[in-house]
Amino acid sequence: MRENEDLEVSHLRIDSGPPGLGISGDLATQDFGAAWREGQGIVVDCALRPQNAPRLATALARLCGHAVTSMLFGRERRRWEDFLRGAASPRKLPGNLDFAFRVTEARALPGVDAATAVSSDALSDAIHLALDAEAYRALDGLLFDVLGRPDPEPCGWEIEADLRQSLWALWEAWRQVLNADEQVCRRFLVLLAHEQDFEGEADAALVRVGPRTLRAHPLKAAIFALAFVAGSDSQVVPVADRPGNIRGEVLSGHACGVAWIEGREVGPRTVLRPWTTSVVLLAELRAAVEVLGEEPRLDTFGRERPGSAIQPRWTAP
């Protein structure tokens, strides 16, 4: 695959056979995010059918869907096409995004002597873990561009200079927490791009987290979360377990950047859905939501329904 002669292409080959899979190619198992980071195309040769390894197929949907361009050679081409398109259909993404997958029937390849043996689940975990790390690295860079630079890039919101410095200082503190625990980092990222508060693994939801979504959705959700915490006078940090993805002594929060939920645009009635946290921070909310009369405070921990779904008040027109 070389539609653009200047585009570098990384290759991943997945062969089947007892006792597990054989992995070879340019993408090292410890750094599948290299293709995203370098802006490369990705070519995957997969000897499996998607129904034989659905977790791995979901990881490949994430890897290929966020790449500059990709091609997958797989057995049962049409089934692979249906699976990949379903994993990244518009209803399953945080906003109006388009993931394009190119799939063709598996091709005959010469034997490989230096393949790495790994199980399907272990390969899925390795892909997601590496892509989490790369998505986090990219989000950190975007936050620096918007908050940390003396000449900040626009993000759609006008942020006063002193506030920008405060938000960057808070992010530097959060970065220490995120660097220390991979599960904290994963939960923070996936809930920035999803309205569901997952318990345990959330493989399908991780397809939302990558270069094609970061600037449009998780970036604003992260900025909004920082702004809320900076103004709340509370010690709130990212967390590894439910409820939400940020928490302090007196509140739990779900910082969320989705533009729609279950096919509907995020609006005032969104607060009525069964959120798990005491505060819900919706960076994509288009209209302000009033605080519920019987639950007027935002800093009360442990309620079944959040006191408010909050909208940024410094959105540029």
Provide a compact summary of the structure.
With 317 residues, the chain is α/β, with parallel strands linked by helices. 35% of the residues lie in helices and 16% in strands.
Describe the structure.
The chain has nine helices and 13 strands. With 317 residues, the chain is an alpha/beta fold. The protein has two domains: 9-120, no CATH class; 122-310, no CATH class. The strands form three sheets. A six-stranded mixed beta sheet has the order 5-4-3-1-2-6. The longest helix is centred in the middle third of the chain and has 29 residues, at 120-148.
Q: CA-to-CA gap between the ends?
A: 42 Å
Uncertain runs are 289-305, 313-317
User: How many beta strands in the DSSP annotation?
Assistant: 13
Strand order of the largest sheet: 5-4-3-1-2-6
| Secondary-structure element string | EEHEHEHEEHHHHHHEEEEEEE
Percent strand equals 15-25%
Helix/strand structural class: alpha/beta
If helices are DSSP runs of H or I spanning 4 or more residues, what is the number of helices?
9
Number of domains: 2
Portion in helices: 25-40%
Q: What's the overall geometry? A: elongated
Mind summarizing the main beta sheet? 6 strands, mixed
Mean pLDDT: 87
Radius of gyration: 21 Å
List the defining traits of the structure above:
single chain; 317 residues; five-stranded mixed sheet; 35% helix; 2 domains; alpha/beta
